[in-house]
Amino acid sequence: MAEWTPEDFSRARRSKPEERARFRAAFIKTFGHPPPRRGPIPKPSSERYVGTYIKLHPKAIEWAKREAKRRGVGYQTVINETLLHRAA
């Protein structure tokens, strides 16, 4: 399939609700189930993270950042893994 040109994009339009409804009906008729949801797969509640704010000593942050750089991960991942290991 050829790459879209700026002219192709300028002529493009959004699909209408009726077109989306026809597509959905055709998908269900063909495959026997509705089209899959778009976006990331929702995680089970036991695996979801909770947003939080915590004050840590600067030395703890420095250590976490050094460790994260050494391991090639984010420093918050290092802190989370350390807390989970200690809590277990």
β content, as a range?
Answer: under 5%
Quickly give the structural class.
mainly alpha
Number of helices: 4
**Tally of extended strands?**
0
- Helix and strand sequence: HHHH
Rounded Rg: 24 Å
Which whole number gives the mean pLDDT?
94
Described by strand count, sense and barrel closure, the largest sheet is: none
First-to-last CA distance: 53 Å
Low-confidence stretches: none
What does this protein structure show overall?
The protein is mostly helical and 88 residues long. It has a domain at 44-88. It is built from four helices and no strands. Helix 3 crosses helix 4. The protein is elongated and about 60 Å long. It starts with 5 loop residues before the first helix and ends with a helix. The relative contact order is 0.06. The mean pLDDT is 94.
Task: Give a brief description.
The protein is mainly alpha-helical and 88 residues long. It contains four helices and no strands.
How does the SSE layout of this entry go?
Blueprint: H1 6-11, H2 17-31, H3 58-71, H4 75-87
Helix pairs in contact: 3-4
